Amino acid sequence: MTTVRPLTLDLLRPAWAAEVPSPPHDALTPEQRRQHLRRHPHSYIGVTRAPEDVDDPSLTVEDLLVEGRRSLETLLEADVFTPSEGPQYFIYRLTANGHTQTGVVCGVAVSDYEGGSVRIHERIRADRAEHLAKHLNIVGAQSSPIALATRESDRLLDVTDRAIEHEPALDFIADDELHQQVWRVTDPEVSEHLGSVLADGDLYLIDGHHRAAAAARHREHDDHQRRPGDDWMLSAVFPAHQMFNKAFHRVVDPASAARLQPLIGSGFAGRFLDSVNDVVDRRLSELAIGFANADSIRWAVIDLPLPAGPSVTTVDRLDMSRLAAGVLGPVLDIDEADPRGRLRYLPGLGTAQALTALHDELSAGEAVLVMNPVSMEDLFEVSDHGLVLPPKSTYFEPKVRSGLFVHFKDRV
User: Fold this and answer.
1) By the 8 A CB rule, do 361 and 294 touch?
2) Are the C-beta atoms of 303 and 268 separated by less than 8 Å?
3) Which residues share a beta bridge with 257?
4) 28, 136, 215, 385: which has the fewest C-beta neighbours closer than 10 Å?
């Protein structure tokens, strides 16, 4: 069981939809985020900038957070948000590349995250969570919903379908072609049903582990007076079957690729392939490797048997775990916790067309190690058993955006 409630939220005015909402933070480099803010000075990125987004060495972290608060005040002075009408649920729909997911924007109790009713699946960086906790304290508002999934998919869809029978309050397409729609839930009966469905069973944290940890740390700090909104995380809860996870491929540097290529068929049981279609059709125990040259990718597979035995967990059987245990560490001497520039990550799909397109993302001499995406059932099992996935195991799209909703911490 989880504790969920409607929140008092300000909603972005439609006239500002092209300027204020932020692109997903992790999809851009710091320099790309700086460029976006220069092109869109009212972007919510100005409120949420991280230390790596600033190229002024004289600016302290505290200075940065104060500037974030000033950026929010600038948006409020420009009247970019419609003032709240009191606690409400909102329906939030995202559509991209033919895929649609429809969730409920609400408040989820921080105590449920602390107590385990909100299930997690990845470790966090303590410094990042601490920075976000300070952000909550100084800026005093949330605008980046934590993405959660519920197994009550059919029940939730039944209620959200009733809630969107009227015109949306917000309906726009972002620069990256993401179609976003928001409806207010004004029918008391629908609100009651939403609360009932969301409270049944556990919620699974999909995207926003650092924001959730920051909310918990922020509540623990004794350097500020507790505010009503401190007990609630701004969240968007989606039906589990609508969540779409891409694989997170590993890309190794040319020196590592050069060490790996001669081992195909000798040091490793495996073979070179005739076609990218053979990559898609490979056996479950096989990991695919693409060696990039100037104009194409030469594909191969190596066999890393699936581990078995009573002590083997779901995490142990995942591609990224077998890769780390069988190749990255013992053969290439790459530690994912500290890759020292020898390893990077590339999200993508597993179709032949998508794998062919990976060539445009690679430099000559690099090698891409193709991962299968983690299924929702595997993620549930990991979360339910208190296990943790390796770094960069999930990349869910489309991602919720900042700048549509604002939850001020001095109110619920």
Assistant:
1) no
2) yes
3) none
4) 385
Beta bridge partners of 108: 4, 233
Quote the tokens at residue 314. 């779901």
The CA distances from residue 243 to 1, 248, 290, 397, in Å, are 21, 16, 28, 8
- The alpha helices in 56-208, defined as continuous H runs, are 61-77, 110-115, 126-139, 153-163, 188-199
Residues 6+ apart with CB under 8 A from 24: 399, 401
How are beta strands 179-184 and 90-96 bridged, if at all?
A: antiparallel
Per the DSSP assignment, residues forming a β-bridge with 182 are 92, 170
Residue 268 has what DSSP assignment? Answer: B
Q: What is the pLDDT of residues 32-90, one digit of tens each?
A: 999 999 999 999 999 999 888 888 888 899 999 999 999 999 999 999 999 998 999 99
Separate counts of helices (H) and strands (E) for the chain: 14, 20
8 A C-beta contact, residue 372 and residue 221: no
Q: Are 152 and 121 in contact (CB under 8 A)?
A: no
Domain ranges of the chain: 4-244+397-408, 247-394
In total, the chain counts a number of residues equal to 412
At 126-139, the pLDDT tens digits run 889 999 999 999 99
DSSP string covering 24-77, please? PGGGS-HHHHHHHHHH-TTSTHHHH--GGG---TT--HHHHHHHHHHHHHHHHH
Instruction: Assign 195 to helix, strand or coil.
Output: helix
Q: How far is Cα 219 from Cα 233, in angstroms, rounded to an integer? A: 11
The two structure tokens encoding residue 282:
């490979």
Tokens standing for residue 118: 């909100």
